[in-house]
Amino acid sequence: MDFKTILVDLAADPARDARLDAALTLASLFTARVVGLTATGTLLDPFRSAGEETARYQQMRADMLRNLKQADAAALDAAVARRGRGIEISHVVVEQEAGWALTSRGVSSDLILPAPPSLAQDTPALMATSAEYVLLNSGRPILVIPPGGSLVPGGTVVVAWDGRREAARAMRDALPLLALASRVILQVVLSGAGPNEHGAAEAVRWLADHGVSASLRIDEAASPADSLMRVTRNEAADLLVTGGYGHSRLGELVMGGTTRTLLRNAPVPLLMSH
């Protein structure tokens, strides 16, 4: 299955241009359409009995929505001018928080590009960021592009493998990009279980059955996230593919874990599935 509908968050963060360029690159490769989404956040209506204050608030709300929509539309148009001419583009505005809006629209998309969680973002430990919410609730893969990053189809891809459902889902979801890659590395990070228990050889065979030649590498490390990021840098990889929240989500949210670490710190574009 190719990517045919690509949903991208138009939030005005430092990675927006890179995110839009990646979406348009994929759309060009797979003859897909790109849907840019503006999430306004939750807007509360004033009390109906507020009189003139109600009218003033409603005008301020209308002005804010118009300015936000125009700014996001301009960013989308600029991206199309850079590299998206001839691609089908649409723009939707959803008056909800970004995570909910991307999830509700994302269920009818093939790939979702949310804004990356920021290292400086002051999100309480037990609350999911927009990217995490979409990952857990949309049933679709997400592609997170770091600020200044770029998607390079046809380059080197590192696929994290631990034999779990989430890893298998991510590998399957990434297959259109793996088929284009010049090199695919299936990376197993051991933290106690032996390599045979991960079914890594069978995963390599599955990829070969789908026309993807992959090399198998096994590493022992206390932190899977650190190991994966190290391999990604050492191999000059262009994309990292992983499953998300293969362990207890509550445990990862409280203690920090592989999913959250990679979402915030992956040095290259990250395709993740749950």
Q: Could you give a quick summary of the protein structure above?
A:
Belongs to the universal stress protein A family. The protein has helices at residues 16-30, 52-83, 98-106, 130-137, 165-173, 175-178, 200-209, 224-234, 249-255, 258-265, and strands at residues 5-9, 33-39, 89-94, 111-113, 142-144, 156-161, 183-190, 214-220, 239-243, 270-273.
* Major sheet: arrangement of strands: 5-10-9-6-7-8
Order of helices and strands: EHEHEHEHEEHHEHEHEHHE
How many structural domains are formed by the residues? 2
CATH class of the largest domain: Alpha Beta
CATH architecture of the largest domain: 3-Layer(aba) Sandwich
The helix fraction, in percent, is 40-55%
Terminal Cα separation, in Å? 18 Å
CATH homologous superfamily name of the largest domain? HUPs
Q: Which structural class do the helices and strands define?
A: alpha/beta
CATH topology of the largest domain: Rossmann fold
Mean pLDDT: 88
- Outline type: elongated
- Count of strand segments: 10
Major β-sheet profile: 6 strands, mixed
Which residue ranges are poorly predicted, with pLDDT under 50 across at least 5 consecutive positions?
A: 250-256
Rg of Cα set: 20 Å
Beta-strand residue fraction: 15-25%
What is the number of helices? 10
